[in-house]
């Protein structure tokens, strides 16, 4: 991403929990899944909620870092999927559920998909460039919007719209 996003989409814990539950209702129609793979770190929070709702106890991580605040750099895979979970997916990811908080440019999603092409990929929020990468999502926001997650934010004074 070159310019920082213009619009802000703040998400509260309550809203995030509701959106994760809504995501799970959709995933329940698609499963069952052998295991969940959370894309860390953002995917850990929705993965916990989805796992609770679907009764899934096997949870693995793919650890990827790329953003320094709003600027994306090179993707860095710090940890891949474990051998046990890869086996459950028969090598192609079939029957596995990948969960992330959002897809933006789709770079992270594309990389994870290349590791497990037959897995089901779910994200809570999607921007237009990343949307084709996900099988299931809940809310779409425009590409020039930055989503502010509750674990990154705190309550603060906002100046009135009309100064
Ligand atoms: O579609 P993309 O443009 O690739 O962006 C989406 C990814 O960016 C964020 O993760 P980030 O790399 O910031 O790491 P984090 O989850 O640890 O915050 C977000 O959680 C997604 O995983
Ligand atoms: O907190 C975040 N909000 C976003 O909109 C976003 N896009 C990529 N990575 C992101 N992280
Ligand atoms: Mg992430």
From TrEMBL:
Q: Its Gene Ontology molecular function terms?
A: xanthine phosphoribosyltransferase activity
The reactions it catalyses are:
GMP + diphosphate = guanine + 5-phospho-alpha-D-ribose 1-diphosphate; XMP + diphosphate = xanthine + 5-phospho-alpha-D-ribose 1-diphosphate; IMP + diphosphate = hypoxanthine + 5-phospho-alpha-D-ribose 1-diphosphate
> Pathway membership of this protein?
Purine metabolism; XMP biosynthesis via salvage pathway; XMP from xanthine: step 1/1; Purine metabolism; GMP biosynthesis via salvage pathway; GMP from guanine: step 1/1
The residues covered by the Phosphoribosyltransferase domain are 12-157
Q: Which InterPro entries match?
A: PRTase-like (IPR029057), PRTase_dom (IPR000836), Xanthine_Guanine_PRibTrfase (IPR023747)
**Superkingdom field:** Bacteria
Identify the residues that bind Mg(2+): 101
Swiss-Prot/TrEMBL cofactor(s): Mg(2+)
Q: Where in the cell is it found?
A: Cell membrane
- Subunit-level organization: Homotetramer.
PANTHER family annotated for this entry? Answer: XANTHINE PHOSPHORIBOSYLTRANSFERASE (PTHR39563), XANTHINE-GUANINE PHOSPHORIBOSYLTRANSFERASE (PTHR39563:SF1)
Q: Can you name this protein?
A: Xanthine-guanine phosphoribosyltransferase
Question: Which gene underlies this protein?
Answer: gpt
């Amino acid at each position: 991403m070159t310019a920082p996003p213009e619009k802000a989409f703040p998400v509260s814990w309550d809203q995030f929990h509701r959106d994760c539950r809504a995501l799970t209702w959709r995933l329940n129609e698609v499963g069952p899944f052998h295991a969940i793979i959370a894309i860390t770190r953002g995917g850990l929070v929705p993965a916990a909620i989805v796992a609770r709702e679907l009764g899934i106890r096997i949870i693995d991580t793919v650890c990827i870092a790329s953003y320094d605040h709003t600027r994306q750099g090179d993707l860095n895979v710090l940890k891949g999927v474990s051998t046990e979970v890869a086996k459950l997916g028969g090598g192609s990811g079939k029957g596995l559920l990948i969960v992330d908080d959002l897809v933006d440019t789709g770079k992270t999603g594309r990389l994870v998909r290349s590791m497990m092409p037959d897995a089901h990929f779910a994200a809570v929020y999607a921007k237009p460039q990343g949307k084709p990468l996900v099988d299931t999502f809940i809310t779409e926001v425009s590409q020039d919007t930055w989503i502010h997650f509750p674990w990154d934010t705190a309550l603060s004074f906002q100046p009135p719209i009309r100064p």
